[in-house]
Write a structure and sequence with these properties.
Strand order of the largest sheet: 1-2
Distance between the termini: 79 Å
Number of domains: 4
Shape: elongated
Number of helices: 21
Structural class: mainly alpha
Order of helices and strands: HEHHHEHHHHHHHHHHHHHHHEHEH
Number of strands: 4
Strand content: under 5%
Largest sheet: 2 strands, antiparallel
Helix content: 55-70%
């Protein structure tokens, strides 16, 4: 398969210009439900990484040879390990199956590419690789004024930002690599013409073949470095200095002009590579689960939960609810916003209900992860679905276990019967084989279920800041007190637990089981 490469180039925009640009491309994007497999970015990432690695190696070689290193190349030497670790992480996080299921661009020059990949590349290109949490938030918010992003797109925007940044690092490395090649050529010419070393004593003889796509730019690094090296030889290199000046004049420039332009170009490359490396670090620190909570279009709807439970849940649980909505959206081809609104609509029916069971139904989560899921699905698809609650699933699991175990036990017992022709031996073997066969069957069932069924997250509340008075909690630590030393040890531990959790409405206690006679002997 031939994979496409996403190439987006842009000029640096200020914050207002960038926001307006994001709003503009949101209007222009026509989307489809999936991305094309031939736009998968990992092959391009691997090629980019391979070239960055090659640049890193040539910089190390040139340091050993005593060649002056390109200023932007120092960033590569000092921070290559960051790029290496991030590339390994991206390969694990983004597989082809996951990528192809993401919302794609339906038409235009970016047709087939994942929308979040295009969006991330646009952000990186128009910020000169200078990315932080505020920039990401502002861009996504601006985009969503015209088109809503899915939960999966927001959750993976960080991965695509890193891929786009590494692409820009590779482009800078091309300039660094070509510049180092020119410096090598200069050293080879100095050694051969100016120093006139014997061919057996020359160091710079291993020429590297490199075909550049920007040959015109290669002249400036060569001229700048040649001028720098010739000045060190003074009058001994005067004739070569004159030849160099004459050749530069033929280009309509002076050596001073070339040096000034090259230094300005190097300064810009240093800024770009510096922004890129710093942004890779900053993006790794961004909590995208929190960003997902702020940016998701479903968040505001779910926050209207009639019994005010959702907004007090921890971020993992909120993301789990939104993932359920996202998966349901993919199955039914219905907007995530619409699904969230329908779940809220169902919950509001029980807003003023009394009784624990009815209040349970007033929570939006009941229709996303509990028995109300089938009711929500029926409402969305306009057809009656059989309600299958947890009791039904438990019965199905237990029934399947007994049915399979009985089948295999019966088959083995029948084989024993036909071998022995004894009913009593058959019955006895059926009884004796029940435990080992059932144990094997349940292990196989649990193994296969773990492969096809992902574990369910238990919803949790977030009481990080404070525990409400109505949720007052008593932490009881059961222990056996045998000796005086054990009592003192547990009291110290209890004090540590208390000091580590300085919350209102949280209390600690020991639940003791003591050996009264032993404690009396120890004076307790």
């Amino acid at each position: 398969m031939v994979f496409k490469t996403l190439n987006i180039s842009g000029v640096l925009l200020d914050r207002n210009q960038l926001i307006k640009y994001m709003e503009k491309i949101a209007v222009e994007h026509n989307i489809k439900i999936s991305s094309d497999k031939n736009t998968y970015p990992i092959p391009t990432l691997n090629e980019n990484y391979k070239f960055i690695l090659e640049t890193y190696r040539i910089l190390n070689e040139h340091i050993k040879l005593g060649i002056k290193i390109h200023s932007a190349g120092e960033w590569i030497l000092d921070n290559f390990y960051i790029v290496e670790e991030i590339v390994k992480t991206i390969r694990k996080e983004l597989n082809l199956k996951k990528y192809s299921k993401m919302v794609g661009i339906a038409s235009g020059k970016y047709e087939g590419f994942a929308r979040s990949y295009v969006l991330a590349s646009e952000i990186v290109s128009y910020t000169d690789c200078k990315i932080d949490s505020e920039t990401v938030y502002a861009c996504l918010e601006a985009y969503q004024r015209n088109k809503m992003l899915t939960i999966e797109e927001i959750a993976n925007i960080g991965v695509f930002l890193k891929i786009a940044i590494i692409g820009h690092i590779k482009e800078v490395c091309e300039r660094i690599f070509s510049s180092q090649i020119q410096r090598f050529k200069v050293e080879e010419m100095i050694e051969r013409l100016v120093e006139q070393k014997d061919i057996n004593k020359r160091i710079f003889t291993n020429k590297i073949n490199y075909n550049s796509s920007f040959e015109n730019e290669l002249k400036y690094p060569f001229i700048e470095y040649m001028s720098y090296r010739l000045k060190k030889y003074g009058k001994y290199a005067g004739i070569y200095q004159e030849i160099l000046e004459e050749q530069v004049l033929k280009m309509g420039l002076t050596i001073s002009d070339v040096i000034q332009k090259e230094h300005l170009y190097i300064a810009n490359l240093k800024i770009t590579i510096g922004n890129a490396i710093k942004s890779l670090k900053d993006i790794s620190r961004i909590d995208f689960s929190e960003l997902l909570g702020e940016m998701s279009g479903t968040e505001g709807i779910l926050n209207k939960d009639p019994i005010n439970v959702y907004k007090n849940m921890d971020q993992e649980t909120k993301n789990y609810y939104k993932t359920i909505i996202e998966n349901l959206s993919k199955k039914t081809k219905i907007s995530e916003i619409y699904i969230a609104e329908k779940a809220l609509e169902l919950a509001k029916r029980y807003e003023n209900s009394e009784g624990i069971l009815k209040q349970k139904r007033a929570h939006v989560g009941y229709y996303l992860i509990d028995d109300g899921y089938e009711e929500l699905k029926s409402l969305l698809t306009n057809r009656k679905l059989n309600e299958r609650n947890e009791n039904y699933k438990a019965k199905l699991y237990i029934g399947s276990f007994f049915a399979i175990s009985l089948f295999f036990n019966f088959m083995i017992s029948m084989i024993i019967y036909f071998s022995s022709l004894s009913v009593w031996i058959c019955v006895l073997s059926f009884i004796l084989l029940w435990i080992p066969i059932s144990e094997i069957i349940i292990r196989f069932m649990n193994y296969f279920m773990s492969k096809f069924k992902s574990p369910t997250i238990i919803p949790k509340m977030n009481y990080e800041e404070e525990i409400p008075e109505e949720k007052v909690t008593f932490v009881v630590i059961p222990t056996i007190l045998k000796t005086k030393e054990k009592v003192q040890e547990m009291i110290r531990k209890l004090e540590v637990y208390y000091l580590a959790n300085p919350y209102e409405n949280l209390y600690f206690a020991l639940l003791r089981r003591c050996f009264r006679r032993k404690l009396q002997k120890n004076g307790l």
